[in-house]
Specification:
The chain is an alpha+beta fold and 565 residues long. The protein is built from 21 helices and 17 strands. 34% of the residues lie in helices and 16% in strands. The longest helix has 19 residues. The protein is globular, with a radius of gyration of 23 Å.
Length: 565
């Protein structure tokens, strides 16, 4: 993952350039390999590069040398080679970068091209001739992006909120699946700066508004996931897989191992540049994840790396974690901390990209509270609600925890094409409870692909699976740091979304040190949740009332592993 900065409507180029460079330095962890900047009297674009594809020639900004347009991008365009063949005009290509094609797609097709590309992205295109700019974000928000405005009305975008907080009077998350178009007026023409503030939704999947009724095809489901993983192996640098020992990450790792010996960019014609697949797991000494991850690694033949951390090491990292992931959400911080520690180890071994299993629980209703779904309609609608909020939770965690150390995380379960199929069949086929294990349809589609004890292992949230004493220790630490009186007066200290528990209060206090603005606080969604449920699903069970811990252990079914083959 790279880091991008955009400033639109600038005055005083020299001062703004210094400001842009300072902003870019705050997100350099995202792109430690190179820095680039473009500036004119109206726009500055800065890029911090993590080189993954076309390492030697893909530095940004990228330029259309004929039309003059400028591009900065963060993400991956998996079908860039095929997209080049669809262009109608001849273009003067500067690199083999996957992102360069965005310049020419926009020229030939306008905003409509967004629905045709296969990838994850946040990018800006600026035309210095017309003073037009175009900003877009991927379908689910896998790649982070924020937008803000200062007192003078100058508009900013940045990969992380920390770059905007010191300068913006107003800021917000750039909504996933949207683009933003605008125009900065020309001084030469005697016009005042004009910005057309307009978010346009480009990602409108049918599954978000309808209840599908088509029966599932297990062979098709398997094929779609294997296809998603294979194309996301597009990489010119060493890569690895994260294995928690649960179903989701284990499937992704096993599929990656299946295709890892051939180079994807060559159409499988060349041997892989990096011949051995490396896998990574993390946990406390007693972690159940460590044990199961080891079994998976042995099964797929990866070079496996285990990282055991202590509770104290995790607590010591909390401030850094909150600074990097930019949230005070309790579940996210619990899970991000071991992931942040693991990312440092991964980086030390020269790995620059990893595949992870985020998204499966949202797509297939894998969280344990889904056992309580009253019917298929409610089940499906909850999966939609979860997917539409992932940019604030698991996508945020996976991306920023890894990017803190210059590692890119890819999440095949959220691949746009895979979602199109996995969300298009009858939710009755996904439902659990009454003797059926969660994500049963996914498990059946891959029978024989993993050891049974992994394939049929019941759901463990990552923050639980790294070791049950982790969450208990965080609660105990918060109990010592936060007094009862502080909780009583929480609404006075934090009038916006006051914390309900001591642990939440602790995280909110740290967050405010780095991000003191009201708008920053509002980028985090809060509400009643058990086992990662939305506030809507929270009402499925009266037993949830009065409970405030989002851990999966709060759901009784956690203690009663079930299996139905």
């Amino acid at each position: 993952m790279c880091g991008i900065i955009g400033i639109f409507g600038t005055k005083g180029q020299e001062a703004r350039r210094s400001q842009a460079l300072k902003m870019a330095s705050t997100i350099r962890h995202r792109g430690p390999d190179w820095s680039g900047i473009y500036s004119d009297d109206y726009c500055l674009l800065a890029h911090e590069r993590l080189s993954i594809v076309d390492v030697e020639h893909g530095a940004q900004p990228l330029y259309d040398t004929v039309k003059g347009r400028v591009l900065i991008a963060n993400g991956e365009i998996y079908d860039h080679q095929q997209l080049r063949t669809t262009l109608k005009k001849e273009h003067q290509w500067q690199t083999n970068s996957d992102c360069e094609v965005l310049l020419y797609l926009y020229e030939e097709q306008g905003p409509e091209f967004l629905s045709k590309i296969d990838g994850i992205f946040a990018f800006c295109i600026y035309d210095p001739t017309t003073k037009e700019y175009f900003i877009a974000r991927d379908h689910i928000g896998i790649v982070p992006l924020y937008i803000g405005w200062d007192q003078a009305g100058v508009m900013y975008v940045a990969s992380e909120m920390k770059a905007l907080e010191p300068y913006c009077e107003k800021l917000q998350e750039f909504p996933p699946g949207h683009y933003y178009v605008g125009y900065v007026g020309s001084q030469k023409e005697g016009k005042k700066e004009v910005v057309k503030k307009e978010f346009v939704k480009w990602y409108k999947p049918e599954w978000a508004t309808t209840i599908p009724t088509a029966p599932v095809s297990l062979p098709q489901l398997r094929l779609e996931l294997e296809t998603a993983v294979k194309k996301q192996l597009m990489c010119d640098v060493p890569y690895g897989v994260l294995i928690s020992g649960g179903l989701d990450s284990s499937l992704i790792a096993a599929i990656a191992a299946k295709f890892s010996r051939r180079r994807i960019e060559s159409g499988d014609k060349e041997e892989a540049w990096w011949p051995r697949l490396h896998s990574f797991s993390i946990g406390l000494e007693e972690s159940p994840d460590i044990k199961f991850a080891r079994q998976v690694a042995e099964h797929i033949g990866s070079v496996h790396h285990e990282l055991k951390f202590t509770v104290q090491e995790g607590i010591d990292a909390l401030r850094d974690v909150i600074y990097h992931i930019e949230t005070y959400d309790v579940t996210s911080i619990r899970a991000s901390t071991p992931m942040y520690l693991m990312a440092r180890k991964i980086k030390s071994l020269g790995i620059k990209m990893v595949l992870s299993g985020e998204g499966a629980d949202e797509v297939f209703g894998g969280y344990l509270y889904f056992h309580m779904a009253p019917d298929a309609k409610e089940f499906h609608e909850e999966t939609v609600r979860k997917l539409q909020k992932l940019s604030k939770y698991d996508c945020l965690r996976a991306n920023k925890s890894m990017a803190a150390w210059g590692v890119e995380a890819r999440v095949p379960f959220l691949d746009k094409d895979f979602l199109e199929y996995a969300m298009s069949f009858d939710p009755k086929d996904k439902m659990c409870g009454q003797g059926k294990i969660e994500k049963g349809v996914l498990r059946k589609a891959f029978e024989g692909f993993l050891p049974d004890q992994v394939l049929w292992r019941q759901k463990e949230q990552f923050s639980d699976g790294v070791g049950y004493s982790w969450i208990d220790s965080l609660k105990a630490y918060a109990e010592k740091k936060i007094s009862d009186e502080m909780i009583v007066k929480a609404a006075e200290r934090f009038p916006i979304q006051p914390p309900a528990t001591k642990e939440a209060y602790l995280y909110r206090s740290i967050f405010e040190e780095f991000f003191p603005s009201k708008d920053a606080a509002l980028t985090v969604e809060v509400g009643p949740s058990i086992a990662c449920s939305t506030p809507t699903a929270y009402r499925w069970s009266k037993a949830f009332q009065g409970m405030a811990d989002p851990s999966g252990r709060a759901v009784a079914v956690h203690k009663e592993a079930v299996r139905k083959i």
